[in-house]
Known about the structure:
By secondary structure, this protein is α/β, with parallel strands linked by helices. The protein is built from ten helices and ten strands.
Amino acid sequence: MEHYAIEARNLRVYYGDFLAVRDVNLKVAQNKITAIIGPSGCGKSTVLRAFNRMNELVPTARTEGEVLYHGKNIYDDDVDPVEVRRRIGMVFQKPNPFPKSIYANVAWGARINGFRGDMDQLVEESLRGAALWDEVKDKLHQSGLSLSGGQQQRLCIARAIAVRPDIILMDEPASALDPIATLKIEELMHRLAKNYTIIVVTHNMQQAARVSDYTAFFNLGEGRAGVLEEFGPTERIFTNPEKQSTEDYVTGRFG
């Protein structure tokens, strides 16, 4: 039986009166990479942020339905959103290292979560996990902002994995990067999937086809609300989709 890392049931997200995504039902397989694709404005990032309660940081946002993590709805009243975000980490579109040293960037999340172990070892493991250690091991006390864009993004991934999450959400993690840096992030995602469940929003069809095991295609429904149009193994979505709209989108005949 396949284990699910997270499951959305009848998920709806509103911004004020605007229904941004409606009735999303989606089961995300554990230790696999799931890509979320679709046209601009169809709610891809909104769905991603619903998986770790990040939408709550937007004052007008409200969420209905359920997001089950280990069988527990993360929106239940007795669930601490800070704990949710520790277990379900996030990497943003634009690399956002803190204006601190490389070392302090990685150590930061672990410190605020009360990590009591060997911090040097944790920093090294996390940087190795993000395929960055060899490039920065001699300059750990330089600013994280001194790194290239691709290195900064891997530093943000190291920061995310330092708190030992189960799931890593990535919101277009390579869209601000050049092709070589993008390839490094994609290679890294494959490595990380051995130990983490990864959900990635991307507008790059080739990237979705290259990196993901499963693909969720979102589209604009009535009233401009995002809807989950089709979901399945990536190979099938790209070679033999069930819906014409999916085929039009993945072959570039769309929009």
